[in-house]
Predict the structure.
Amino acid sequence: MSVGAMSRGEFRFRGGRLCLDFVATLAGRYRGGTERLGDPADLGRWLRLAMPLDSDAPAASDDLRQAVELREVIYRLVHPATRERPNRADIDIVNTWASRHGFGSQLGADARSMTLRAACPVEAGLATVARDAVDLLSGPWLDRVRECARADCSLLFADLSRPGQRRWCDMKSCGNRMKVRRHRLSHIGTAPM
């Protein structure tokens, strides 16, 4: 489904890692899913919002199909329930993307800002996402990848907190909702008559 012109707020950037934010472009996996990459323009917009690009990356239908395939592969490889049994075909897809040409950095006119450039920005963007997935999967933070504890939220996030006890993708949304729900449930039946 096409979701029309999206703002940064409609994409979820709560994962703590680029590859996990990319996985979040399919929201509500346990409720039938809300596809946030409904058309190629959505993919171009996500890439611009996730990376320092001057404009939306021009994407085609085939780019979108490949992006969704990469997203689902990364999801399976990092999800706590499936990461211990990786599929060789999934590994090959991530490695193929990670080996593609990436972005080059260019200094802005103010000599303080930076933007990314590539002959094919969509390919470079997906290669960057795949390289982040390789880094996450092969590094020390994989054991800190969690799924939000709210029953109807399926967002994955890297728990980068010192104690490693984080339960929700975002305290302001899911965490607060759960605390309010627990508070209300604890006060049911205790109201004065």
